[in-house]
Amino acid sequence: xxxxxxxxxxxxxxxxxxxxxxxxxxxxxxxxxxxxxxxxxxxxxxxxxxxxxxxxxxxxxxxxxxxxxxxxxxxxxxxxxxxxxxxxxxxxxxxxxxxxxxxxxxxxxxxxxxxxxxxxxxxxxxxxxxxxxxxxxxxxxxxxxxxxxxxxxxxxxxxxxxxxx
Length: 165
Description:
Layout: H1 2-35, E1 50-55, E2 63-67, E3 72-76, E4 82-86, E5 98-99, E6 104-106, E7 113-114, E8 120-122, E9 131-137, E10 140-149
């Protein structure tokens, strides 16, 4: 009878050890999958980085239009030029909304402010909002969101202008 209780105890000890080992292994697998970077999906190919914004005439001078798909704002300057501005603040990468009532971008995190050209009006942002390349083909605006253009301030050559007829 003594041998039987020892073997039963040994069996239960081994069973608990096995269950504990399996639980730890499962936890390790979950943590590895959680922290492992995701691979880009095939549908995010280069052609998907080009956002067709629409015809030039759709955008009035002095306006800003948000594009959720490309995560950018399309600003039409008073002189007719176009800028595709990143929605990411250059201070701590918060999403910066356009506040039409004040005609500026105001960061909700640390109150950095940017004008319609993306220039810093009120720090702590260290530099202007990043840009995306804008092309006008057949009077239709296309924005390439694949490679943001880092800049310190606005210069007139950064704006894209429609060709006059």
